[in-house]
Amino acid sequence: MPDTPFNTAVWFEIPASDLDASKAFYETALKITMTRDDNGPNPMVMFSSMEDSGVSGHLYPGKPADAGGGNTIHLAVKDKLEDAMERVPGAGGKVVSDIIPIPAGRFVYCEDPDGNSIGLFGN
Where is the VOC domain (predicted)? Predict the structure, then answer.
């Protein structure tokens, strides 16, 4: 990580009661490939990022907040937002809002299988 971050936020962590199930959810909902890393004190599953892009994160074994509680992490969707919304329930999550348009694009609130609040962001 560079000494001076490009963004104020540089890393996020999402707690998961079952790393393999959470990995499967995020890979399916976002159409991405995640990497498991067992080299640290705890196993984790890494979200990919472009080198020096500034922001990434991981899943870790932990106790999620109560369903719908805690922070909301917004994640980029590579394809159509509507397509990602259709994948969420089949992967074990819930779509909890309609699409919300903002000047920078559009997003929707969802919950992952553990009830973690996430936003899916796209154009």
Answer: 8-123
Cβ atoms 121, 75 nearer than 8 A: yes
Q: How far apart are CA 18 and CA 54, in angstroms?
A: 27
What is the amino acid identity at position 89?
Answer: P
Q: Model's pTM, two decimal places? A: 0.88
Domains of the chain from N-terminus onward = 11-122 (3.10.180.10)
CA distance 88 to 33: 16
Q: What ranges in the chain are assigned the alpha helix state H?
A: 19-30, 81-90
Q: How confident is the model at residue 40 (pLDDT cuts 50, 70, 90)?
A: confident
Euclidean distance between CA atoms 106 and 123, whole angstroms: 6
Closest by CA position to 64, among listed 26, 21, 109, 13 = 13
Which pLDDT score is estimated for 1? 46
pLDDT digits (tens, 9 = 90+) for 54-106: 678 999 999 998 876 789 999 999 899 999 999 999 999 999 999 999 999 99
